């Protein structure tokens, strides 16, 4: 009898070995051709082999992770659900329990990496649809845990899969969006870039590592405010674009992010004329590649290029009205005629600022008047939350525009009827805020005009005029609250391009 059982067992095992071999061959063809017929064959054959390799079969661990890998690829091409994701995870978990801890073939590292990818995908799906995939935080934590385990098993720098583990762990850590995890990600990605540079053939991994490094620097700057992170972001994105020469729309997001990074750098460290010129060139190239089919990206390209042109005008001693006119044009093109969430206060406030400076420095022209500046500023005020520092800036802008109109014409015109009282605008500004002195001084002037309507003193007139034309403050509307505006824009992440846009590239499979 034992011999009969052995004969039957060997017969079954021969059949499952044949199925497994067919699955491996089909998967190899799928990876080469990306034809779905081969993926379907891989799933069928690996599942058949797994069904035959019951508990205790020496080939069961290998069948588990091969089946999970093929099944997950099929799920991602179709529809990922909690049910099929649970099956894939259960296969990987069982494989880890059965695989030996000392694994010279590297199977445990592969399983940890792939399991980390599954949890990361579930995390992304949870961000899009939290009702269908509710465990957003735990899924991200499990992704990080598995990628860390994979990295520990790839401890040797010479290991060909170490860059993949470094990049995947870093991409997951970036999503935690805190300074400590971002710092770890920057360290890991720095090593990944070094290792990828050694292998000239690993271009895709190098581009992904550099883009992720730029994103990590951008995130850490958001938390810590260290300009060195902006420098790191700019350096990484320049290298990305060097690698993407001649790749058309593949350059768009890195171009936009580099334009934004250069603009931020020039705002933090003025007198960087070459960087500002580069920002304009990069932004113009991004605009040529952008179109309205991707509404969010196109909006950010227009807004960022307009901001760069406006900054170049305010920082350069040799003023160019062309920069101002182009900035106004791009701000206007960025306006959504039917916004879902209402008018964007950052955009409308910036447009009002550019028009105001243009009117003050070069006079009004058709379509660009103080009335237009006032109208856009009022629209920004109505759409801006009152607890946002930008709200205070906008109210100050309205007073500045009104004073300019009164000074230019000697008449109030139609602006005064909509000017809000300045009394409730100063209190929200903390006394230790660096813009507090500018705001309170401006409101003394505004309050005098609102209430006195009498002969304004020369000293007060000079104060308003000097502030509005000062090269260091770049006009009363934009500059007296430039830092306030920047902080507000930083919080308007999804609408103002102050955070780097992600390329949404998936982590790397092993």
UniProtKB/TrEMBL annotation:
Region ranges (Disordered): 454-510
Compositionally biased region (Low complexity): 463-499
Superkingdom, natural source: Eukaryota
SUPFAM superfamilies: TPR-like
Biased composition (Polar residues): 500-510
Identification of the protein by name: Unplaced genomic scaffold K443scaffold_86, whole genome shotgun sequence
Protein's organism: Laccaria amethystina LaAM-08-1
Origin organism lineage: Eukaryota, Fungi, Dikarya, Basidiomycota, Agaricomycotina
């Amino acid at each position: 009898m034992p011999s009969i059982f052995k004969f039957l067992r060997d017969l079954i095992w021969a059949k499952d070995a044949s199925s497994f071999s067919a699955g491996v061959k089909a998967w190899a063809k799928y990876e080469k051709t990306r034809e779905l017929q081969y993926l379907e064959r891989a799933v069928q054959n690996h599942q058949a082999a797994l069904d035959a390799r019951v508990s205790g079969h020496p080939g069961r661990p290998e069948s588990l992770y091969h089946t999970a890998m093929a099944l997950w690829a099929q799920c991602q091409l179709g529809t990922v659900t909690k049910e099929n994701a649970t099956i894939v995870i259960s296969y990987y978990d069982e494989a880890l329990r059965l695989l030996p801890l000392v694994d010279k073939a590297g199977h445990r590292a592969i399983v940890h990496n792939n399991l980390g990818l599954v949890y990361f995908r579930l995390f992304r799906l949870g961000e899009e649809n939290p009702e269908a995939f509710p465990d957003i935080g735990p899924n991200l934590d499990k992704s990080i845990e598995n990628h860390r385990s994979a990295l520990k098993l790839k401890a040797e720098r010479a290991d060909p899969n170490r860059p993949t583990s470094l990049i995947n762990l870093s991409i997951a850590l970036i999503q935690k969006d805190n300074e400590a995890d971002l710092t770890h990600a920057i360290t890991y990605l720095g090593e990944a870039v070094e290792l990828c540079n050694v292998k000239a053939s690993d271009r895709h991994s190098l581009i992904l590592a550099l883009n992720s490094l730029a994103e990590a620097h951008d995130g850490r700057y958001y938390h810590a405010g260290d300009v060195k992170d902006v420098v790191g972001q700019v350096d990484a994105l320049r290298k990305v674009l060097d690698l993407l020469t001649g790749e058309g729309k593949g350059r768009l997001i890195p171009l936009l992010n580099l334009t934004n990074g250069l603009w931020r750098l020039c705002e933090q460290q003025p007198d960087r004329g070459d960087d500002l010129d580069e920002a304009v060139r990069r932004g113009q190239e991004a605009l040529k590649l952008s179109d309205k089919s991707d509404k969010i990206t196109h909006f950010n390209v227009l807004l960022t290029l307009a901001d760069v042109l406006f900054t170049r005008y305010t920082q350069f001693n040799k003023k160019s009205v062309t920069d101002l006119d182009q900035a106004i044009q791009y701000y206007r093109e960025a306006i959504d005629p039917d916004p879902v969430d209402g008018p964007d206060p950052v955009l409308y406030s910036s447009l009002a600022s550019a028009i105001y400076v243009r009117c003050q420095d070069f006079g009004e022209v058709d379509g660009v008047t103080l009335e237009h500046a006032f109208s856009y500023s009022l629209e920004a005020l109505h759409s801006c939350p009152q607890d946002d520092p930008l709200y205070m800036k906008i109210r100050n802008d309205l007073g500045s525009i009104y004073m300019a109109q009164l000074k230019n014409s000697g008449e109030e015109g139609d602006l005064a009827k909509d000017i809000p009282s300045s009394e409730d605008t100063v209190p929200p500004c903390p006394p230790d805020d660096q813009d507090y002195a500018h705001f309170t001084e401006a409101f003394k002037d505004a309050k005098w005009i609102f209430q006195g309507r009498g002969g304004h003193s020369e000293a007060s007139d000079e104060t308003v005029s000097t502030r509005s034309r000062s090269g260091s403050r770049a006009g009363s509307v934009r500059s007296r609250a430039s830092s306030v505006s920047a902080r507000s824009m930083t919080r308007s992440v999804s609408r103002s391009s102050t955070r780097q846009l992600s390329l949404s590239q998936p982590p790397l499979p092993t």
